[in-house]
Fold:
Amino acid sequence: MSNSKNTILSLRNVKKHFPIKEGVFQNVVGQVHAVDGVSFDIGAGETVGLVGESGCGKTTIGRCVSGLEPLTDGDIFFDLTPEKLVALEDFEKHQSEIKNKYLIDEIQSTSNISKIEGDDFYNYRRNCQMVFQDSFSSLSPRQLVSDIVSRPLKIHKVCADNELIPRTIELLEQVGLGKQHLYRFPHQFSGGQRQRISIARALALDPKLIVLDEPTSALDVSVQAQILNLLHDLQKQRGLSYLFITHNLSVIRHMADKIVVMYLGKVVEAGKTEDIFANPQHPYTKALLAASPDLSEDVMSDMAALDGPIPDPARPPQGCSFRTRCPVSRTECGWEVDDIIRRLEHHETLIDSIKSVHQPDAFNAKLTFETSFSAIELKDAIGTNDIPKQMRKAIKKIEVDGNDVNISFDPVQTVPLVQSDNGSLSRCVLANK
Amino acid sequence: MKKNAQNAGIDEVNFNDSAFKVRLKRNLEILSNVLANPTTVLGLIIVILMLAMAIFAPVITEPNTPDPYQMPRDWKAARSAPLTPGHILGTTNRGGDVFYGVVWGARTSLKLSILVVTLTVVLGVIIGSVAGIVGGKVDEILMRIVDVFLSIPELIFALAIAAILGPSFTNIILALVIVFWVKYARIMRAQVIRIKQREYVDAAKIMGASKLQIYLKDILPNSFSPVMVQATLDMGNIVLVGATLSFIGLSEAGIAEWGVLVSEGQAGISAGRWWASTFPGLMVFLWALAFNLVGDGLRDVLDPRTETKR
Ligand SMILES: Nc1ncnc2c1ncn2[C@@H]1O[C@H](COP(=O)(O)OP(=O)(O)OP(=O)(O)O)[C@@H](O)[C@H]1O
Ligand code: SF4
Ligand SMILES: [Mg+2]
Structure:
């Protein structure tokens, strides 16, 4: 897969967890697994599209990439030559044989964005910029366009003071604005024009990579197309790489060379745009495509649309995290005790009569009820259609013992990302076959 | 290149614009919005008259020597009614000229309110910014302190402090500063927390701006409007509370201060000599009213919600 081009960005098992704090003393009571082990690469001049429903961690990845959030775990490497990428992959596969320790150390100290400092970090700042979704909130209401666009030039002392304004005008012209817009406040512009100002600001330092976080989702459809064309043209002229974040699949199809599909902080499918649209592998991708009316004719339309709530990212499901909503789930998809509770939530009297839950891990639990009658009722409920067959089969043991019910499932590992026939990666037990 | 129709949106195209002119125009726009409200204009007129009176006090009345802030005493003309020649608003029991007290009292009030507002704003903005930016335990502790301060009624708190410190004009200033800074700390903290989540702050971080620069260029200017509104309101409130403390006798006796004067004239009221208390009392009322009217007008215009509507 390696060619002569550099890899602008390489995410390796990136994790970002946010602590949940409570009370006066701000005790940490849990962790939101916003991003949970994400890896992908962006090549020079390439656009990688990041898609997924709201809350799956897309923005968090963008913020990690642009250095706004420190990582909980994992690494992000910037601008790797093909040799360095190979060395890195090699090193990860055979940790023990330190063949080229010298090269690895060099990569860590010059390309790992959490470890570089001084000039290298300054250099990274120049080379990675971001455009945000909300064009109102991304431009300071008290600064003139001239200040906004020239500010990066000033900070990085790119040019002499008397060059600032000509350079700023040049940048404005590149995004389809002009010098008549220099001395205006952001609120005097339309949404599309404000987004152009943001793009001009992002271009000022001539970066290699721009993170675009839903740059057009707040815009009218016609304006959206203009901005997308502008981004396309700029990419061609300047050889930019984009990390394009969106939940709009037709936009991503238009823009991206590669697509990364995320669900609950994890990558569920990744591959070339054509492959994913022509032959989606993961049930989640299929469901997303089915839910996009303007795209669905050429994909299988027998797929049920997505329904049901997204599980809480503070307690992401084990096994396959999509199984609570997956229309084709199997016995081996990794069921756990929480699934029983989720499925029986509408049995209010039954749920209310639970006195205590002792749960040593996700797969084993002892539920204590008010009465032995309720305990038996639970066991009966598991036999009904409320619990899908494939899930019932995964139950290893269920015993009623007076007021207690002991339930255990077979423990499972997280479903791995595996390569399918057409070259894309997918995280689904069906793809393993 | 596509440099075509997208330039529409903005109507008048003026190549001679400069940053200075645009800023000036924007400020004039805000001013004209403030002036669109008649009650604000009324408040502003009274404020301007009061300020003029304070600034030109030495021109309006001959300054008393050696200390012009002490009331001149004309014992022979004590208890004169208004319109007595030489004592246009009458005199007090002790021969103090009410007109002199009213005019120089404006100066005292201006001195008091400007001093207290400046000190409280600086203190409040610093503490509020630290709490908002640092967050965590520092924030918790600072805000608990603020809560304690806010739970005590302003007047009673100021009274207690001034009483502990002992009667003097400086101690009144001190007491007022101790009481009034908390509001600014709280306003500033809320603003800083709101503004630091704005994406333009993230954009500044990404382009490599220093923390200090982000604070000075992005956070501070965008947080300041509510502080300014509160400062305007407090220009009035401080004089009101200050006069109350003076009235109770926590200031220096005999200085040209409205509260002191009301208290000095109080003895004559039962005997029908209404003027010595009424005129300075009216001044306190007008001063507080005027700044409150202007502050309310500013709030309407600077409120971020009305700002996005325009
Ligand atoms: N600063 C934070 N503190 C705590 N939780 C956070 C923080 N930022 C994000 N999260 C949580 O992390 C998860 C991922 O959020 P993120 O904003 O990355 O999602 P997204 O994919 O960009 O969604 P959207 O499409 O709505 O923008 C969410 O559950 C969110 O609540
Ligand atoms: S592993 Fe595949 S089949 Fe099983 S629940 Fe997940 S997506 Fe559905
Ligand atoms: Mg987002």
Observations:
- The pocket of adenosine-5'-triphosphate (ligand 1) is lined by residues A 18, 32, 34, 52, 54-60, 247, 313 (CB under 6 Å).
